Amino acid sequence: MRIRIVDAFADRPFTGNPAGVVLLDSDPFPDDAHLQRIAAEVNLSETAFARRLPEGQEADWALRWFTPVTEVDMCGHATLATAHVLHTTGTAGGTVRFGARCGVLTAAAHADGSITLDFPTSDLTQVAAPDGLAEALHATPLGVHDTSRHIGDLLVELADERTVRSLAPDFAALARHSDRGVIATAAAEDPALGYDYVSRCFFPNVGIDEDPVTGSAHTALAPFWSARLGRAELTGLQASARTGLVRTAVRGDRTLLTGTAVTVIDGELLA
């Protein structure tokens, strides 16, 4: 079984978010326990498993994502990584349709090597800051939104970019406040640097204390900041240690996520 490690939302190795990508010949998928063991062994934020579907279906490939501890409903960076592998290996061309737990997702390849993902826009509902959230983040929220659709995070606006960059959360305490985790965000201090807003993502409930670059979170960040800034097309910087840029465009109930990827490991699973 061949596996690639791909840095997604990255233009060079060792940046962005690494994902495992496994293209399967089997039909149906191997049993869930085996997929979970592989994801635990790979031990990245997500490992994607894809298998080709018969012609005539609404999707070309079935796609699933596993963190080291659980399967998730939606994942952006591992979808970008999978599309990158399909295109760079000549397995697929043009636009690829993926059938996933969150519906049909598309990935369109461009001549410059970038890929645009078409994902469902997350719903945003303003809520009161839960008791203990500020203490868990070690920062005071300006506002909190629930992102119930598909991702189940709390989106927390903070005072400024410096506050987001300096966060050092209590992950055990943070895990009590949402289904998956917390997206912390603020406006860019200097948009002339090439990004409009910053974020960091903490997902202790699915075994990821901090996710390096999170495509799915941008289905909530994009509508949030587009409404604030009055522009449908923006660029977000996820300010993790690895960092990554996600170009976003809100199209009603769909959000487009554009980025590039780099394959860094190509090997064989022996178990």
TrEMBL record:
Keyword Isomerase included in the entry's annotation: yes
Active site: residue positions: E46
SUPFAM superfamilies: Diaminopimelate epimerase-like (SSF54506)
GO cellular component annotations of the record: cytoplasm
Keywords assigned: Isomerase
Entry annotated with the keyword Isomerase: yes
Pfam families: PhzC-PhzF (PF02567)
Source superkingdom: Bacteria
Family stated for the protein in its record: Belongs to the PhzF family.
Protein name: PhzF family phenazine biosynthesis protein
Source species of the chain: Streptomyces olivoverticillatus
Taxonomic lineage from the root: Bacteria, Bacillati, Actinomycetota, Actinomycetes, Kitasatosporales
